[in-house]
Amino acid sequence: MQIIVLGAGAGGGFPQWNCDCPNCRRVRAGDPSVRPLTQSSVAVSADGQRWVLLNASPDLRRQIEQTPRLHPSGGGRNSPIRAVATTNADVDHTAGLLTLREAQPLAVYGTRRVLGVLEANAMFNVLDRTLVSRKPLVLDEDTPLTEQDGTPLGLSLQAFAVPGKVALWLEQPDLPAFGSVAEDTVGFRITDTATGAYAFYIPGCASLPPDLAARLDGAPLLLFDGTTYSDDEMIQAGLGTKTATRMGHMSLAGAEGSLASMAGLTIGRRIYVHINNTNPLLLSDSIERRIVESAGWEVGHDGMEIRL
Ligand code: MLT
Ligand code: MN
Ligand code: ZN
Q: What's the pTM?
């Protein structure tokens, strides 16, 4: 199984269009200690020829052009991208579906709740239903992934509920948890059906309850929510009013953070993705980067490739 991190950034990317914070300023200036990041997506393939996107970001068009293995070939209209699965209905995970609208067969996977959001938004009708099938994922069940015509892709996908919330643009302020239900935010376990190799991809997760920790223990690879280093990072920087937890993301630092709460887990490789532009770990010369790396984590970047 091959995995390419297409975008290791969170919503907004790095730099973010309207942000002149010290991090964004450094990356715009071409500082060699920081890499720009596009928004949150990875590509996975069992055969190296046909690819599944986990999340479709607003930067997808650029991500495809930057990744020759995702280019069409042999003349005419075609694409190595055969399926897309989304972990939630956030803009950074679904807007890229609109980029895939040029009459190309495709299978789109999501929980019934997330597919319902796409269904309710008429703009996604640009994905011609005669060519683009929408296939539900049932929580905690392995679904063999196929192309639109049913041809197996050699991968299976299991969606499982993780602590989180409904997409920002669907929040209902008056309801408990803003109207969130379990199927609004999921993690993925993707498995190569021939070799049994598997990886977890969890770009949004608000906390680590014991059952989730047990699920992740022993995994060969984990790509995990690295949105912010500290919970109140955006507030401290004067760039926002919400904590990471309020946005559905657990921070890295602190007793409840991902560094401490996963320290006792056995995981082959652990890599942060969905990294917000405010996170100091984006600076390769920061103390936070040293802390994260000495805790055994890697910092994801666009174009990062992993073989399992
Ligand atoms: C998130 O990860 O919290 C969302 O991407 C926020 C957003 O929609 O900008
Ligand atoms: Mn996001
Ligand atoms: Zn910034």
A: 0.98
